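Query structure, 350 tokens:
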């Protein structure tokens, strides 16, 4: 361990997102992974709960103890379910740790919006402290953030595709439609008939159409960019694959100058220097396979010649750029490291 080493603990480390955090943190040049904290898996061997770590990271899953964590770590990644994370985060912040929270508990500026979607917020006083962790839009604020609200996977893909168009005024605020499709790992490791293999392997279904909790999160970020309220129609779909999100977004052009070439130029300007976002040429079509296992984002733009609608497409790995990789990207910015440190591996292909 060197003086520049960041000691990190993953709380809720035995779910899919937590496991991905562990995998990436173990390969990060500046992170010393201290331990894994779990609830229902506490006291069990890590290799038993996460067989992928056999021979790589030994020890047992530890129960949550805020004082013990504070004595051993500089930062904590919290990969707990929504509403279960808030009080854990509060306890860790009270003890001076920098916290990167992957739940929805600190993503919303407006407490009323959060409570409409998730219920009463137990530590609402921390909402004003949190910085939304979409690095490409909040890089400067993240440099001094001690509580980072890592964005949801659908909002990451959807917002990154639409943000350049909203920021540059290339599309109208009204009538935006986001059609997004995700692999089943986005539902977490818990057992559910909705993600049971026989019920997902041979079909595609929409779910929570128009009422999914990630819709208001996307609206919040786009409204910030627009300087006024934006409301979208958001429809998520479940695909029979493990990883990946493809967001296809439809919007009315703001004028005749809103061509795919101009949209592409706006995106390349906004994401210039980003180690994660790659803007494809106009008319190219992103594929989740091209970003699988990586912190990469592929964005592209085209236009329907009949309706004139602009079509923005964005592909990510929901467990990496949509969760764990994004958390590490936020850590890199917060600690003044190279933004892509530990995240430079290309996609797993094929």
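Result returned for the query:
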């Amino acid at each position: 361990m060197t003086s520049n080493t960041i000691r990190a603990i993953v709380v809720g480390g035995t779910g899919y997102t937590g496991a991905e955090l562990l995998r990436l943190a173990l390969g990060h040049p500046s992170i010393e992974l201290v331990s894994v904290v779990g609830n229902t898996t506490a006291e069990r061997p890590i290799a038993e709960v996460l067989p992928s770590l056999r021979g790589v990271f030994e020890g047992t899953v530890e129960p949550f103890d805020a004082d013990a964590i504070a004595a051993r770590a500089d930062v904590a990644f919290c990969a707990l379910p929504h509403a279960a994370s808030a009080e854990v985060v509060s306890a860790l912040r009270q003890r001076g740790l920098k916290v990167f929270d992957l739940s929805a508990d600190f993503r919303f500026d407006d407490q009323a919006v959060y409570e409409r979607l998730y219920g009463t917020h137990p530590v609402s006083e921390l909402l004003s402290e949190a910085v939304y962790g979409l690095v490409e839009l909040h890089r400067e604020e993240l440099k001094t953030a001690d509580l980072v609200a890592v964005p949801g996977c659908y909002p990451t893909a959807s917002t990154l595709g639409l943000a350049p168009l909203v920021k540059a005024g290339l599309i109208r605020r009204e009538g935006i439609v986001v059609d997004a499709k995700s692999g089943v790992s986005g539902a977490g490791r818990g057992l559910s008939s909705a993600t049971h293999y026989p019920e997902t392997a041979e079909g595609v279904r929409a779910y929570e159409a128009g009422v999914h909790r990630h819709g208001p999160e996307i609206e919040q970020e786009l409204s910030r960019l627009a300087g006024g309220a934006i409301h979208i129609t958001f429809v998520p779909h479940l695909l029979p694959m493990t990883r990946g999100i493809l967001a296809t977004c439809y919007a009315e052009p703001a004028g005749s100058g809103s061509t795919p070439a101009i949209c592409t130029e706006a995106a390349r300007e906004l994401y210039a220097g980003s180690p994660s976002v790659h803007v494809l040429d106009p008319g190219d079509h992103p594929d989740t396979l091209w970003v699988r296992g990586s912190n990469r984002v592929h964005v592209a733009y085209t236009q329907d010649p009949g309706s004139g609608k602009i079509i923005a497409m964005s592909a990510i790995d929901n467990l990496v750029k949509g969760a764990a990789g994004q958390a590490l990207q936020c850590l890199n910015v917060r600690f003044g490291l190279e933004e892509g440190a530990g995240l430079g591996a290309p996609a797993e292909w094929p």
